[in-house]
Amino acid sequence: MTRNTLASWYGQEACRVNTDPACPTAGGKSLYTLLEQEYPYVAMWSVPFGTKVQVCSTAQTEVCVIGVVEDRGPSKRLTGRLIDLSPFLFRQLAPLERGILPVTVEILP
81-85 and 52-57: which strand pairing? Predict the structure, then answer.
């Protein structure tokens, strides 16, 4: 099933509120390590860790990326957003300065 939603991105700024020096994601991996490796992580609620998802930009031209669920998010106060992307993935769809992007999200088998 494909869902239309908004995507945002997040990186090490999330570690300011995480007191653990490794800044682990909800899945237990160090966010610093994921960022260093340009790992294609995403954050979603109610999707098992390790699940692959295809995210396609719906703004102007359709470009798609594949990410792996490694964290929970986006913040529940951000209504209308189903997914947060790593900076590495977001940059493939749009400049980081854009901040928010209309996308489709499909959970892959």
Answer: unpaired
